[in-house]
Amino acid sequence: ADGAHVFENVTATGNGGISLQRGAASLKNITATGTSGSAIWMGNKYPATLDTVTANAPNHRGIEIANTDSLNNEYSFTNVKVTAKSRGINVARSGRVKMNKITVNTPDIGIYLEADAKGEHELANLDLTAGKSAFNAPHGAVKVEDFKITATTDVGIYIGTAHDAVIRRGVITTPGLMGIYIGGTDKKKVTVEDVTIKTGWQYGFMLMKSSEALIQRVCVSGMSTTGIYTTADSVTIRDSQFSNNGSLGGVMIDSASTQKANVINNAFLKSTPSRAWSNSKNHKFDGNYWQGVAGGTKYAEGNVTDNKTLAANPVTGCYVAPPSPIGGLV
Predict the structure, then answer these.
(1) 172 and 194 in contact (C-beta within 8 Å)?
(2) I want to staple 327 with a disulfide (CB 3.0 to 4.6 A). Which of 62, 105, 122, 125 is the partner?
(3) Residue 43 to residues 1, 20, 260, Cα–Cα distance (Å)
(4) What is the pLDDT averaged over residues 280-301?
(5) In this structure, what DSSP letter does residue 327 have?
(6) Which of 117, 113, 148, 112 is nearest to 133 (CA)?
(7) Which residues contact 281 (CB under 8 A, 6 or more apart)?
(8) What is the DSSP letter of 322?
């Protein structure tokens, strides 16, 4: 059945709710339940669109696109709500994936775009609760905006990419490993702004290689090790707040000493060392607020030196996610 299939106003329940082996598909106003398999399974040869879909899979993955034909297919998800035992939404192979207004609840991974999903992905208005990573994308440029994420045992947002990434306007609660991880070894541009990360076992945000990174208006609190850890070639961290973080304080700069990180106009809310850490005096800490340190005096701790300390916290507030639901069938 290799055609341009259209499903509208359908309720389906079975071992697998809806299964499409091939063919383009448009699914709209769908409620699908897979009692033992996936609620929706698509082995698509062509692009697909899902609009206003509820998927329930109490024993398996919620929505699975197992395309093996093309790296150019675009998949669009709008107003989608998934409850699953395994991965909420899984895309094995694709071009660009676009998601808007998505709710996922699972003890596994919330949204997984596998290694062969290599397009310029765009996701917005996400409400994800996951036992493991809430969002995982090993490859492909990624933009994630307007989100509320809880990841119980792993990473809130994992991007293991050699491409650009933009993350903005969201709240991550991660009692597990860390809030955000951006990896890869190639050079890329990274922007993270207006994000609040709360309560983590290790790092709030780990940023590895990048040619240019801007982190601004980010609040990180309650991490056991440090708020932000980075080895990026060029990084600016500004207008952000770090409170009640662990042994290495709010920021840990581990970039090459030949590079120059800039840490500017931030608030380090910790009354005792270590408030921040740097592997080199080349990295610039300038004009920050250090709790317990008088403004206008020199602050020095290891390789961290600030000659323009602020007398008051420059951060007036942290980003707060919109009321739930921000995604899915609103």
Answers:
(1) no
(2) 125
(3) 12, 6, 48
(4) 94
(5) S
(6) 112
(7) 303, 305
(8) P
